Amino acid sequence: MNAKLADRIATAIIVAVSGFIVLLLAGLLGYIMVRGLGHFSYDFLTSPPETIRAGGGIGPQLFNSIFLLVLTMLITIPLGLGAGIYMSEYARPGKFTDFIRLLVEVLSSFPSIVVGLFGLLVLVNAFDLGFSLLAGALALTVFNLPLMVRITEQGLKSVPREQKEAGLALGLSKWKTIRSIMLPVAIPVILTGTILAAGRVFGEAAALLFTAGMSSPRLDFTDWNPLSPFSPLNPMRPAETLAVHIWKVNAEGLAPDAAEIAAGASAVLVLTVLLFNLAARWLGRFMYRKFTATK
Amino acid sequence: MQQYGLSAKDLSVYYGPKQAVKNVSLDFANKQVTALIGPSGCGKSTFLRSLNRMNDLIDGAKVTGEIWIGEENINHPKTDVVSLRQRIGMVWQRPNPFHKSIYENIAFGPRYHGVKNKKQLDEIVEQSLRKAALWEETKDRLHKSGLSLSGGQQQRLCIARSIAVKPSIILMDEPASALDPVSTAKIEELITELKQEYCIIIVTHNMHQAARISEKTAFFLMGDLIEYDETDKMFTDPEKKETSDYISGRFG
């Protein structure tokens, strides 16, 4: 077999494999959308679910998913950035950092149901948080934090060494150099990682069953006092997310339109993730441009 | 001591057990260009990087000996490295402008060091760019990214950036080796211009460049300083055999 032929065969295989993956994804997405979109309505997106009758919506669940994402990211981003900056710029490479890195890897590949049980035993019971958004957010932080740490570390490591040296050589302090010279350059990498981490929050169900709970109180969307038990903003209330709701409706839904609700909710979930990705990317580009004056 | 911009006494640099620079003593005069030449791995860049304590950043690197600026030994654990580096500018082999606008690249340092007045900053930016012979080319696009400039312009921007914080000494690590001949000529012209105000220490692989722009030349080999003299003498009548071998191109 000559080199030219081998090259052609390799190209054909690679194209075929990529094509297959694209088709698979398109098929999956198309299936979810076609099944789900028929069920879309303003009512479906805003009204609370019904237990027995048909016509329930997913309003609170959609809100819970987004609110849980915000809460989780509020905890994850500062901690992850801090730890990532420490690992990349302050810690002396050695056994200790290798050990931390190992822990981080192990943590991020924990089975989510185990994290859920941990959340139930420690957060919900021992710390007495109850089934709550806060317990859910903390459980999700267990997965997201390692990802965030690693991404921040990689982002900073990917900044050319000369950039850092140029900052220091101008007489900038180490922190100023990291904050104003290196982080802006690392933003695209860090942001991509943050989006990945956030995507997991939307999709996660197992870790939330025992932490954020499988029910949502009747939310009063006119009450924005975070301390009131029916306020959507109360972080101490139980909160069923969209992914958990899909699981519950499929597993034990009694409403006659359970299958349609699951399909509709899946489509909403996929669309939300998509919209979130696009928005985050746009924000990242905007920030990068603002900091770096490119175009 | 005052006539020297900077003096190294018995300076040695170790990377772990390996001694990369061996007991080098060198005096660098003010308002002069001193070239450090030698084959790759001879320790000239390492030596240069220890002068503004850049080697502190490298794990396992240790610098012994003294570096005097005026009456102060700056290779001392108590030296305030941050304020020291403000007095010593640095230019790298590859242009490394910040990922910021041209204006910000220059204003960033002075602003950090306390110049808050917008007018004053504008002035510093203009002066620095003029000194770096870049003003005419950039005055209409100051708020475009520094990365939008050509390689040679980027390098001049880096020089402007370093002089904006008013150093007295500028270290240059092969500043023109990544540039085309036209840009190189511009950088060399700029260096000759700048030496009226600064003590310039330049590492170069290009011996013609050393001959063209420097008053004094130091030749390094395997971490040792072999010879240090007036550039003219070094290139016409060197004392040591190694120097003449290297300069005439017999090795390196």
- N-to-C terminal Cα separation of chain B, in Å? 34 Å
Per the principal axes of the C-alpha atoms, what is the gross shape of chain B? globular
Provide the CATH topology of the largest domain in chain A: MetI-like fold
Q: Using the CA coordinates, give the radius of gyration of chain B.
A: 18 Å
The CATH top-level class label of one domain in chain B: Alpha Beta
**Regions with little confidence, pLDDT below 50 for 5+ residues of chain A:** none
* Main CATH class of the largest domain in chain A: Mainly Alpha
Tell me the β content of chain A. Answer: under 5%
List the topology elements:
The complex is a heterodimer of chains A (295) and B (252).
Chain A: H1 3-37, H2 42-46, H3 59-90, H4 95-108, H5 112-126, H6 133-157, H7 161-169, H8 174-203, H9 206-209, H10 242-252, H11 258-292
Helix pairs in contact in A: 1-11, 3-6, 3-8, 4-6, 5-6, 6-8, 7-8, 8-11, 10-11
Chain B: E1 4-15, E2 18-29, E3 33-37, H1 44-51, E4 61-69, E5 72-73, H2 81-87, E6 88-91, H3 102-112, H4 118-131, H5 135-138, H6 151-164, E7 169-173, H7 181-194, E8 199-203, H8 207-213, E9 216-221, E10 224-230, H9 231-236, H10 241-247
Parallel strand pairs in B: 3-8, 3-9, 6-7, 7-8
Antiparallel strand pairs in B: 1-2, 1-4, 4-5, 9-10
Helix pairs in contact in B: 3-4, 3-6, 4-6, 6-7
Give a verbal description of the structure.
The complex is a heterodimer of chains A (295) and B (252). Chain A is mainly alpha-helical. Chain A has two domains: 39 residues; 253 residues, MetI-like fold. Chain A contains eleven helices and no strands. In chain A, helix 1 crosses helix 11, helix 3 runs parallel beside helix 6 and helix 7 runs antiparallel to helix 8. The longest helix of chain A is centred in the N-terminal third of the chain and has 35 residues. Chain A is globular and about 70 Å long. Chain B is α/β, with parallel strands linked by helices and 252 residues long. Chain B has a domain of 172 residues: P-loop containing nucleotide triphosphate hydrolases (Rossmann fold, 3-Layer(aba) Sandwich). In chain B, the strands form two sheets. A six-stranded mixed sheet of chain B has the order 6-7-8-3-9-10, with helices on both faces. In chain B, strands 2-1-4-5 form a four-stranded antiparallel sheet, with helices on one face. Chain B is globular and about 55 Å long. Chain B starts with a strand and ends in a 5-residue tail after the last helix. The relative contact order of chain B is 0.18. At the A-B interface, helix 7 and helix 8 of A face helix 2, strand 6, helix 3 and helix 6 of B.
